[in-house]
Design goal:
This protein starts with a helix and ends in a 12-residue tail after the last helix. It has 131 residues and is an alpha+beta fold. The chain is globular and about 70 Å long. The chain has a six-stranded antiparallel β-sheet. It has one domain (28-119). The chain is built from three helices and six strands; from the N terminus they run αββββββαα. β2 and β3 (57-62) form a beta hairpin.
Length: 131
């Protein structure tokens, strides 16, 4: 009986270790912390969430149709725009990707100008970002 209990706990430990090691592919970008939020429509609920992974904001998620789910994601690298993904029909899948900040800003200004100053800054340092 003692041996079977020991084997059970040993197997459990190996299982938990293998699950943990299976997540070792998570990149630092996925291990971000929330740096702040913004309530664009002033309803008391955050519409934009800013994530940081050090000195800079590294990701921004925006809920542009105010349904509680992000539909625009902006990726920042080294304080500068890297890319953006947009779910234009709000079905949970990316409909458009932007790798150029000018193209993204053009889309943003034509579709959601009220979010422009929340998703577009020349430098995304955490201490300079005005949420």
């Amino acid at each position: 009986m003692k041996d079977s209990v020991a084997w059970f706990f040993m197997a459990l430990a190996f299982f938990l270790l293998s699950v943990n090691l299976g997540c070792s592919h998570i990149t630092p970008r996925q291990q971000m912390t929330v740096a702040g939020t913004s309530d664009v429509n002033k309803d008391g609920k955050p519409d934009v969430t800013y994530y940081k992974d050090g000195e800079y904001i590294s990701k921004i998620e925006a809920d542009t149709n105010y349904d509680g789910k992000p539909d625009v994601t902006v990726h920042i690298k080294g304080g500068k725009f890297e890319s953006a993904e947009v779910d234009e029909d709000y079905n949970g899948t990316v409909d458009e990707r932007f790798n150029d900040v000018k193209d993204f800003n053009k889309w943003l200004n034509s579709h959601h100008p009220d979010f422009n100053n929340k998703l577009n800054k020349p430098d995304w340092r955490v201490n300079l970002a005005n949420f």
